Amino acid sequence: MNKSTYKLLGTLAGLSFAAAAAVHGLTFLGVTVPGAFVLHIAALALFFPAVIISSTAQRRQKRPNSPWAAFAILAPAPLWMKIVLPLCFLYTGVNFLLFMALSGGGGPHQEAGKYYIMNHGVIIRELTASEYHWQQAYVARGFSGHWLLFLFAAWTIYTAAARRAQDV
Fold first, then answer.
1. Segment 2-30, tens digit of pLDDT
2. How many distinct structural domains can be found in the chain?
3. CA torsion 58→60→61→63, rounded to 10°?
4. What CA–CA distances, in Å, run from 54 to 34, 76, 77, 106, 127?
5. Is residue 67 in some structural domain?
């Protein structure tokens, strides 16, 4: 790939990250954004090529088997990205643990005008309408927290690759 392609993919990852951050932020207000699940597809579509690009770049290094080789490929990325990336990783882990605690052991479901937390078809407990909507927001927060990590990682990898292509 050339520098322009890396820049395009980096821009798409950055814009998708911004959209995921907005969706994630809204969940703290109890708002779920219809159609936001398209960001799940975007995160996967942008992350997996970034992993291939980074592994290809890693193999080209002088010491590709070094445990630090994976970090070395990010060297051309801006310092702020290299600082934010591990913070995203940490946040994703904390967010996932909070999601597990808040979800009550299942997912929100609606049947016959009633709201429930269910796990594999088994009703755990009945919910009020308000609790149901908050549970939906918790699910969106759980997913969007992961999107943040995958999209920011992709953005960082594409940015580093574009800068590396510029140096060649």
1. 899 999 999 999 999 999 999 999 999 99
2. 1
3. 90
4. 33, 12, 12, 36, 45
5. no
